[in-house]
Design brief:
The chain is α+β, with helices and mostly antiparallel strands and 185 residues long. It has one domain: Jelly Rolls, CATH 2.60.120. The chain is built from five helices and eleven strands. The strands form two sheets. Strands 1, 2, 3, 4, 6, 7, 8, 9 and 10 form a nine-stranded antiparallel β-sheet that branches. The longest helix has 12 residues. It is globular, with a radius of gyration of 16 Å. Bound molecules: 4-(methylsulfanyl)-2-oxobutanoic acid (KMT) and nickel (II) ion (NI). The site of 4-(methylsulfanyl)-2-oxobutanoic acid has 10 residues, from β4, β6 and β10.
Length: 185
């Protein structure tokens, strides 16, 4: 895992876009983002860890997604563009990377990161929890492949709400999120 301020230079979303300004775990935690490493070894210890983490946080459902050009064929470019649309969810979102790599970008909300993208680079064994109401987006990196476990609390709170929709800023989850992160500072 590595986190840094996105450089905001237009171009391929899959490139690193590293501005050279690193972001600490503390800054991520101020945004309500939790990072955890659960190494994937030959034994099944990681599965026990995932199971207990999921249970602790009240997760009932999960699935596995593989994003590859081979697997998605002609739909690939459209699919990765859709993941890159800035959105929020009304529940928190957990991703655990089983293979490959990619970037989750989260929006800063307080200075000096207000409205800046913070890019979080994830690879095998990395787990991230994005809180309800945080604006974020995802992309594969230039390796063009990732396999991730997606953990869900409940449908339909899982639905992505695009920032471009007129009511998204007004959603309860957004208000509560802002109150939590701004109140904590
Ligand atoms: C998301 O939240 O955008 C996704 O599920 C993308 C694939 S998970 C690495
Ligand atoms: Ni999402």
């Amino acid at each position: 895992m590595k986190a840094y301020v996105f450089d905001d230079i237009p171009g391929d979303q899959r490139l690193p876009h590293d501005s050279g300004n690193p972001i600490s775990l503390n800054t991520l935690s101020d945004l309500g983002v939790i990072y955890k490493q659960i190494p994937i070894g030959d034994d099944k210890k990681w599965e026990d860890e995932i199971n207990s983490f999921a249970k602790e946080r009240g997760y009932k459902n999960r699935d596995q997604i593989t994003v590859t050009r081979e697997g998605l064929g002609a739909a690939y470019e459209d699919k990765i563009k859709s993941f890159f649309d800035e959105h929020l969810h009304e529940d928190e979102e957990i991703r655990y990377i089983l293979g490959g790599s990619g970037y989750f970008d989260v929006r800063g909300v307080t200075e000096p990161y207000n409205e800046r993208w913070i890019r979080i680079s994830l690879e095998k064994g990395d787990l991230i929890v994005l809180p309800a109401g945080i604006y974020h987006r995802f992309t594969v990196d230039s390796n063009n492949t990732i396999t991730a476990m997606r953990l869900f609390q409940d449908e339909p709170k899982w639905t992505p709400h695009s920032r471009s929709a007129p009511d998204t800023d007004e959603r309860e989850a957004r208000g509560e999120y802002l109150q939590q992160v701004k109140g904590a500072i």
